[in-house]
Design goal:
The chain has 146 residues and is mostly helical. The chain is built from 6 helices and 2 strands.
Length: 146
């Protein structure tokens, strides 16, 4: 199972502004921006799971969450992950497929389509949140120590 990677390109100006900030503050701003995009994917993945008929008890839909992941390099895109927790473990089987699909048990992806169909909304949310946070930080006069 390979992770689904979503990379946003074309934010050079925002990246330059992030590099001017202390690492801890830049990491926090980037994490908040990534979370804004991840919440869009989570909401749409839940809608897709319901539409695909994966809503018997509601456990699978409720299990689609945004998880924070720590990484040594603060500029990595893998800060937040969308996945399943607890009783929704079988959601991964529907997302990636079963070894032997039988009857109702068949491949019904819900997270990947949410990402693909909303790429522009996600990129916009990430950019807007990052821009907003950088402007707030700059208004307080915080800069990288020399």
């Amino acid at each position: 199972m390979e992770p689904i990677i979503f990379e946003i390109k074309g934010l050079k100006e925002l990246e330059q502004e992030l590099l001017k900030l202390p690492d801890k503050i830049a990491r926090r701003a980037l994490a908040r921006a990534a979370a804004a995009g991840a919440r869009i994917v989570r909401t749409e993945a839940r809608k897709n799971a319901r539409a695909a008929g994966l809503y018997d008890s509601g456990a699978l839909v409720k299990s689609i969450i945004v998880r924070k992941k720590r990484h040594a390099n603060w500029r990595t895109t893998q800060i937040y992950g969308i996945g399943h927790r607890g009783k929704g473990w079988y959601g991964r089987l529907y997302e990636y497929g079963f070894k032997k699909p039988v009857g109702e048990r068949r491949h019904r992806p819900h997270i990947r389509p949410a990402l693909d169909e909303n790429a522009e909304r996600i990129a916009s949310a990430v950019k807007n949140r990052l821009d907003e946070d950088i402007r707030k930080i700059q208004a307080h006069g915080i800069a990288r120590p020399k």
